[in-house]
Amino acid sequence: MEEEIVNKRSSITVQIGLNANNLPLEMHWSAEDGGITNAPAKAMMLSLWNPEDKNTMKIDLWTKDMSVEEMKQFFHQTLLTMADTFEKATGENLISEDLRDYCYHFAEKMDILPEK
Predict the structure, then answer these.
(1) What is the band of 114 on the pLDDT scale with cuts at 50, 70, 90?
(2) Are 9 and 54 in contact (CB under 8 A)?
(3) What domain of life does the UniProt record list for this protein's source (predicted)?
């Protein structure tokens, strides 16, 4: 099989504004290819797979003013997105549905289900 050649490079940048104690006060991110410039954010979870160590390297940050309610919603939406991504990447639809069921349970326990 022939090795592919990298034809283009793209960057995503995250700028973190810290206070004197290195606590994040503000976050902004940019993705030129996506047309996003200096967009505000309050939290991020970055996971990178290290193929040599077969381990995940991660950075979890959130701003000082992010509320507990916002964090609950952020986690819920992140878990749902992970289920979608896992299914797309692996085709494992049954376990992805199990994860979505857990997300419903999580939302119920955190009292963040939308009102009917």
Answers:
(1) confident
(2) no
(3) Bacteria
